[in-house]
Amino acid sequence: MSKPRIGVIISSTRDSRFADKPAQWLMDKVKDHPDLEFDLIDLRDQNLPFFNEAASNLWMPSSDPNAVAWQEKLAGFDGFVFVVAEYNRSITGALKNALDQAYKEWNRKPFSALAYGSMGGARALEHLRLIGIELQMVPLRNAVHIGAGDFFKVSPLGSDAPMSEIEGNLEGSLNAMLDELSWWAKTLQTARG
């Protein structure tokens, strides 16, 4: 079998988002991963309408061509890493909408996150894990959290330092996440046939 393909989904679409900085750091760290292939997916580029279908695509085909294109894109991946911004203790509205626009394409695929915010995006990731369970995904235990002093060191809300200044604090959790993601992605890729 080929290397499992992992979609790295940037979940914030705001003009002033911080997500690009940690997403680029992550993509630099995984570009030569021996077991997984990573592709960056920016929700800004997906042109997704607000969910307005008669039902989930589990029950009937979606009618909106942009939703169908999104579903086709997701179908080509074996797992996901979400770049999770915490907005008011949860995920972004754009990410919730993107999750709702598909169903079958999320099933039996592992996911983790690179989460950020003053609390490390922990509350948003908790919500994302609950949504993932309903979508029949496999939420992983390990994730990368950028919070507290590290967040304010690299965020424009603070010192706006380069990610290299905090990566020593993140590499242990990144390696644990990638090991777990690799195992689950390979296992579930084989099981899906």
Order of helices and strands: EHEHEHEHEEHH
Mean pLDDT: 97
Between the first and last Cα atoms, what is the distance in angstroms? 9 Å
Q: What class would the helix/strand composition place it in?
A: alpha/beta
Structure write-up:
- With 193 residues, the protein is α/β, with parallel strands linked by helices.
- Helices cover 39% and strands 16% of the residues.
- The protein has six helices and six strands; from the N terminus they run βαβαβαβαββαα.
- Strands 1, 2, 3, 4, 5 and 6 form a six-stranded parallel beta sheet that branches.
- Strand 3, helix 3 and strand 4 form a beta-alpha-beta unit.
- The longest helix has 26 residues.
Brief summary of the model shown:
Residues 4-147 form the NADPH-dependent FMN reductase-like domain. It is built from 6 helices and 6 strands.
